[in-house]
Write a structure and sequence with these properties.
Blueprint lengths: L1 H16 L14 E6 L1 E11 L2 E9 L4 E8 L10 E2 L15 E8 L2 E3 L5 E7 L5 E7 L6 E8 L16 E7 L12 E9 L5 E10 L9 E6 L7 E3 L2 E5 L4 E5 L2 E3 L5 E6 L1 E8 L5 E13 L5 E14 L5 E10 L4 E9 L11 E5 L8 H4 L3 H10 L7 E5 L2 E2 L2 E2 L12 H16 L9 E6 L1 H12 L6 E5 L11 H10 L6 E7 L5 H13 L5 E5 L5 H18 L2
Parallel strand pairs: 1-10, 5-6, 11-22, 14-15, 25-26, 25-29, 29-30, 30-31, 31-32
Antiparallel strand pairs: 2-3, 3-4, 4-6, 6-7, 8-9, 9-10, 11-12, 12-13, 13-15, 13-18, 14-20, 16-17, 18-19, 19-21, 20-21, 21-22, 23-24, 24-26, 27-28
């Protein structure tokens, strides 16, 4: 009863103090000691990271002192709702974050400890003056109320750069001229930039000294064909034959505001860098008055772009390419690749993602094309996904695409190999956290089929399936419609399912049809369709979504 009454009085105080001082007349346990501050003793603003400032103000009436600290992204303190965040250390304000406040009160030089039930209201009138009311419900003494009305002059500074959500990665290539001569002292750095959704929006090929760090690549580059000198950049090019409905393009390009790729044929592109509040390097890329061509050979003499504060994506784990396992089932040596997280030590266990490649592909595709290692490292650094192991088997043998099942293009028993030999071996070798809740599978095209097949065949083993551009019906392979229909009829607990498909993909209609079939069976699924074709430009943009999804699944 005592606590209920206290809560009722607290609610009444908040209402009354927003209007007048009628609560001052209350007596007894819930009486208020009111202090009217009329001076600003001091004001200080400190940047505390990621755009957040700690805005401090000391208010006084000449005898009593109220110290306040607010967490905000503004340099001038905005009127807002702030949550009390008391510190457990000697520094009363060290726990302040964006949207919170801390306070300390001294009456005649003696600190009065404030309670957890401390509230502040802050408003600004049309003259720009602040009205601040702080109330703290105290035990055993009169409750405390402090008021201030007047101006506060703030320290106005400059924000540190913040990551924009764009990411940039680099792959090193040799420098070769038009006559096929090599320049070993130089390296052509393929710089790829993706937007916050993981869609590739710019690629440039900067020539500079071999072994350069990203920061050493900062500067201005002149576009040229077959460049063989530092501070030059490979030009974009287009081959377009409308009479044959044929086009191909490559080299340096950026995507304009209309989502059209502009291949840069001449001009200058600048790379600059800045550091955020935590000292992390961010990179910006720009060019103006660039000569460009579109894939349809449309010329433009005033092309421009400006991509600000991209974060470098760097793999922080270990990649093991082309590992092997001797298969008795298949009667041959089989390849696979593995990504191990940074803290892997051969003892600690991790969740696992199996990624399956497409037709005519191989076990390294998700590393070279999808950058799965760097995407996981970036997500772990951003604390949006846990560390995980990624295992990528090979399913194209002697030129035959085995479609992850038994008896396709011959009598090879690939599915049996996968579950009876491959999976137990790699999970034991790499200390996988081997249970359903920590095992997921995904793939593209043929591998999209494989992931749906394995997820429906062994739903007790996989918690999630992420199928990119999946083949959903192939003559000579197990029928996915029958497989999932039987699971639905028996109320089997299926894995979570995402299907992602490009609207220009030749498998688009079949993916739509399969999604409709799942819906008709009552099987929950997440279906994503967006612009894109059956290529690595599309699948590379799937990769951060796969990682993000597993960040939610692997809890």
């Amino acid at each position: 009863m005592k606590n209920i009454l206290k809560t009722m009085i607290w609610s009444l105080l908040l209402v009354l103090t927003s209007c007048n001082d009628s609560t001052d007349s209350m007596t007894g346990k819930y009486a208020l000691d009111t202090y009217r501050m009329n001076q600003v003793g001091s004001q200080k603003t400190t940047k505390i990271g990621k755009g957040v400032k700690k805005v401090e103000a000391t208010l006084t009436d000449g005898t009593n002192v109220l110290e306040l600290a607010f967490g905000t992204k503004e340099w001038v303190l905005p009127a807002a709702t702030y949550k009390y965040s008391p510190s457990s250390t000697d520094d009363y304000s060290d726990a302040v974050t964006d949207g919170t406040f801390a306070a300390r009160f001294f009456a005649n030089g003696v600190e009065i400890p404030l309670s957890q039930q401390t509230n502040i209201t802050l408003s600004i009138n049309n003259k720009g003056e602040y009205n601040i009311t702080l109330i703290s419900l105290l035990e055993g003494v009169n409750n405390l109320k402090a008021l201030y009305s007047g101006n506060i002059d703030f320290e106005i500074g400059e924000d540190d750069p913040e990551a924009s959500g764009y990411t940039v990665s680099i792959v090193e290539n040799p420098v070769i001229d038009a006559d096929n001569n090599a320049y070993p002292e130089l390296t052509k750095y393929a710089i790829t930039i993706s937007d916050p959704n993981g869609v590739e929006v710019c690629e440039m090929y900067a020539v500079n000294k071999a072994g350069a760090s990203f920061k050493e690549l900062v500067g201005s580059y002149t576009i040229a064909g077959y460049p063989t000198e530092s501070w030059m950049m490979d030009n974009g090019w287009v081959v377009y034959m409308p009479e044959y409905n044929f086009q191909i393009a490559g080299g340096t390009y950026f995507t304009d505001a209309n989502n059209v790729k502009q291949y840069v044929t001449s001009g200058t592109i600048n790379i600059t860098t800045a550091e955020d509040a935590n000292g992390v390097a961010l990179y910006s890329f720009s060019g103006s008055m660039l000569n460009t061509l579109t894939a349809q050979n449309v010329a433009n003499e005033k092309g421009s772009f400006n991509i600000m504060f991209a974060s470098e994506v760097v793999s922080s784990g270990t990649v093991l390419n082309d590992q092997t396992i001797n298969s008795n089932v298949l009667g041959m040596e089989m390849k696979y690749s593995v990504y191990l997280p940074q803290s892997w030590d051969g003892v600690k266990t991790f969740p696992v993602l199996y990624l399956l490649h497409g037709a005519d592909g191989g076990n390294n595709d998700w590393l070279t094309g999808g950058k799965i290692d760097t995407q996981i490292a970036a997500a772990v650094a951003a604390e949006t996904a846990p560390e995980m192991i990624v295992i990528m088997p090979n399913c194209t043998v002697n030129g035959k695409n085995l479609f992850y099942c038994n008896g396709y293009q011959g009598d090879a028993q690939y599915m049996t190999y996968f579950f009876d030999e491959f999976l137990p071996t790699v999970e034991s070798t790499y200390k996988v956290q081997a249970d359903r809740a920590h095992r997921a599978i995904g793939g593209l095209s043929m591998g999209g089929y494989g992931s749906l097949y394995y997820g429906g065949l062994h739903p007790e083993m996989f918690c999630y399936v992420y199928a990119c551009s999946p083949a959903t019906y192939i003559d000579g392979t197990p029928n996915l419609y029958d497989l999932y229909g039987a699971a639905a009829a028996s109320n089997t607990q299926l894995p979570g399912i995402t299907i992602e498909i490009g609207k220009s993909d030749f498998l688009y209609e079949s993916a739509q049809y399969f999604k409709g079939a799942l819906d008709g069976m009552g099987i929950t699924n997440n279906y994503i369709e967006r612009d894109g074709a059956h290529d690595w430009t599309f699948w590379k943009a799937c990769t951060p979504k796969i990682v993000s999804q597993l960040g939610e699944v692997f809890q």
